[in-house]
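Hey, I was hoping to borrow your eyes for a little while. I've been staring at a protein lately and its backbone has me curious. You're getting the sequence in one-letter code plus the fold written as C-alpha cells. Would you mind checking whether the C-alpha cells look sensible for this chain? Here's the protein in full, and shout if anything looks odd to you:
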Amino acid sequence: MTHPAQHMAFIGGGNMASAIIGGLIRQGMKPEQFSVVEPYPGTAAKLLQDFGITALTAAGPALAQADLVVWAVKPQVFSEAAAPVMPHTRGALHLSVAAGIRTDSICRWVGTDRVVRCMPNTPALVGQGITGLFPCPSVTAADKALVEQVMATTGQFVWVDQEAKLDAVTALSGSGPAYVFYFLEAMTEAGVGMGLSAEQAYQLAVATFSGAASLAAASTESPEVLRQRVTSKGGTTYAALTAMEASGMKASFVKAMQAAEARARELGDEFGKA
C-alpha cells in the first residue's frame, strides 16, 4: 500500500498512539517516518523497544517535516502541549484523539483550521476499534482520505456531520467497551453462583458476546429480529428477557448512555477554556 503520509508526528506516545503506529508499521511505514514527543521515560522506552522509535522529550524543529500531526494527549494538558508544537506544524493536517476537546479550541491551539477530531475506543489496541470522525470545513477530500488510511489500521470508522454528534459517539462506542465488560462481570458472577468455575463462566460469557456481535455484523436483520429468533415463548431466553424487561433494564441502559453524553458535553466546555 502507499504510505498514508511521508512523515507523521505524534504528540503523546501512549496506548492509542502505539495502536496507530503499530498498524502503520505493519503496513510498511518505517520507524524513521515518525516523530513522537513523549516526555515520560517509561513510555519512551516502550516506543523504542516495540517500534525502534526514539522519542523526543520535547517539541522541536524535527516536527516541521510532518504532513500529519496526531494529538494523543490527555485533554487537560492539550493547550500546554500545543504551545511549543504550533510554530513547527502550522502547515500540517492535525488529527486529535483527545477526548472532549472541541475543534474551535484545537484550531486556536495548533494555529490552523486543518483539523479532524476523532473519538476512538480501546478495542483499537487489537485492531477491532471503531472511531467517530469530524472534519473542520477546511479539511480537504485528500485530508479525509489520509485520516481514513491512518484510522483503518485500528478498525472501523464513521464520519459525523456535526461536532455535537461526537458526544453521542463517545456515549455509544467511546465508553461502550466498559458497558460490555460490566455485562461480562455480571454474567461471570451469575455463572459462578450457578456452580460453574470462574474460568468457565468467563470463557462462556466472552465467547457469547464476541459470537453474538459477529452474528449481528454478518446478518442483514435487525437486532430485534435476531433476538426474537432465539426467544421461544415460555422458554429459558424468554424467562431471562422477561425478568430484564420487568426490572426496566433497557430504559436504565438508555439513561446511562444519556448521562455519558451529557458528561462528554461538560468536558468539552471545561477543557476548551484554556
About this structure: The mean pLDDT is 94. The first helix runs from residue 15 to 26.
